[in-house]
Amino acid sequence: MKIKKGIQLIDQHDKNFMYGGKFGGNFIPETLKKPIDDLTKLFAKLRKDKKFLNERDYYFNTYVGAPTPFIKLENLTEHLGGAQIYAKVVSEANGGAHKIYNATVHCLIAKRARKKFIVGDTGAGYAGKMLSMAAKKFGLKCKIFMGAKDIKRQRPNVEAMKKNGATVVPVYSGSQTLVDAVSECMRYWVSNCDTTHMCVGSTVGPNIFIKIAAWSTAQISRELIKQVKEEFGEVPKKIKLLNCVGGGSSAMGFWNEFMDTDAEFIGIEAGGPRNSRLHAAPLTNGSKIGILHGAAQYVIQDKEGQIGSTESISAGLDYPGISPLHCFLKDTKRAMYTSASDEEALKAYQLVSKLENISPSLEPSHAFSEAIRLAPKLKPSEIIIVNSCGDSIKDKDIIKQKLGSYIR
Amino acid sequence: MKSKIAITFEKCKKEKRAALITYTVAGDNTKSNSFKILNSISKHADILELGFPHNTPIADGGQIQGSSYRALKNGIKLKNVFQIVKKFKKLKPNKPLILMGYYNLIYQSGENNFIKDCKVAGVDGLIVVDLPYPENKSFSKKCKKNSINFIQLLSPTTSRERMKKIIKDSHDMIYYISMLSTTGGILKVSPRKILKNYNNIKSINRKKNLVIGFGITNKTIGSLKKADGLVVGSQLCKTIDNSLKKRLNTAKVLDKMVYNLKKKII
Known about the structure:
The complex is a heterodimer. Chain A has helices spanning 30-47, 50-65, 74-80, 99-112, 126-138, 148-153, 155-163, 178-192, 207-217, 219-232, 249-255, 324-331, 342-355, 362-374, 396-403, and strands at residues 18-19, 23-24, 70-72, 84-88, 117-122, 141-147, 167-171, 196-199, 239-244, 264-270, 289-292, 295-298, 335-340, 383-387. By secondary structure, chain A is of the alpha/beta class. Chain B has a domain at 4-152 and 229-263: Aldolase class I (TIM Barrel), CATH 3.20.20.70. Chain B contains 11 helices and 9 strands. In chain B, β4 (125-128), α7 (137-145) and β5 (149-150) form a beta-alpha-beta unit.
């Protein structure tokens, strides 16, 4: 299994839409075959359509707010003593996280497909919040599926979705988290695919959704590679790009343009509560390949193939599967994966918020935790960049409950 | 040699009626009770579909999800599903039994192991909800080699071009999904429209046995009786749920229900 140079990672699949012959594909009910084929054809056309690309860039610049800042974390670097630590502050994008890229592109596609309704899933509530924002902006009626447990723990984002005019549908089946929200959203699409466009919130699901999500978030690294070259004159030889991974869309976007450079990629999964076995880290913990939500991937499951339950303090990472693209990056050894526990993420949030002007949400705090662990072991000539892809404000309640106080 | 599924359709055609196909979930609500239910409804049903439950069923509505979760909660394993089939086929070797479920369970067993287990237990056919054509080509071939019917699905979104290809690759039974819906939806398309689509599909190859499923209940079944076969699933799962709540004898309740369904199509 090998990654080809000079070809976008999302396009490195075979005729069955499998990456490395093992990951991805379209394991879908017959009813979805045609809507997915239609969307696949439409997206292939739009990717080459100059007008569409201009439109995307226009909205990324004026609506999302490009480029998001690239800053050096001077205090953290000094505090840890070792590698130079930088952050790409994607949380400065409109809405406060990377999910806005995928949401905006999906709305633009839905308009081209002449669909008036758009549905999506959400875990941390960011994907849902952004989709509801973009839907409002582009005049689409929006419905968001969200696990009942997540609705409780991510209140601020739920309020935002409702304010944007979206219907939030609570999902009570299974573990009542992201995995069930995605299932329920797919079921809804099976029943309404003639009038409704579906947005999958991350680089998971049937192949076309993986492609659209990764193609959209790639904006992050398009900006970053320019910013890195401005800062260092070139892409440095010793550079590590750290990103949390749940479904994996933020990391894919953060790494995409660096694929053919020397940059090292480190993905950080959710380890769950310390000593817990209910981690959401299929790559770190050697899960087997299975089928989840239409795609083959490393997935937490039992021997028979029942999908396992996960637990993480960060709703956005609380997912038993992982993008087939990350499985491909893992098996080709292009990226490395590790995990951080709930406690480590909380500590990282606290330290970064105390020392710096940014305050990462619990998802990127997993990545910061790894940066904090690594930096002191590295030389000052080495560079770590962390994707700060969410803001802690949405986790205010959880943080207060766990740490007694909230700082930002 | 003709398959039991083919023989059953021939028999129903001679009797000038649709075949009645039932769907229940193995292990709902317990191993022994689901066997009892299967056995009692087999008096009236022509073909039995038995679900092997998965906890992330992306194409199933509330009722079948409920049955699946109930079965899994009570500890049903694939091994038990095959035991139920084996026990049933010992009693009624000529009654066709089709297993239905999601691909991940087959993938984890290994395709060849799964087919072997099917063969040993006496499974006549397989429906794999999330393994569409052409991705199912190699698996369906393996099934055929082992005298197991791989049942292809068609839906209102399937183009005629695609239908031709799928039908060409099909075995003794094809399943037409009546409408855009998960299982258990309310029939939102008129029976006339469904039958029109049905006839269009039949015109591609009259010899193929085509059954209609999704949204079929005791209220709608009569209006679709011109089909080669009709599948009732969610209504049975819902009835199991209700009779469990009322502490009734589920096997008896289901027996009566399937008897009444049958009456409506003869």
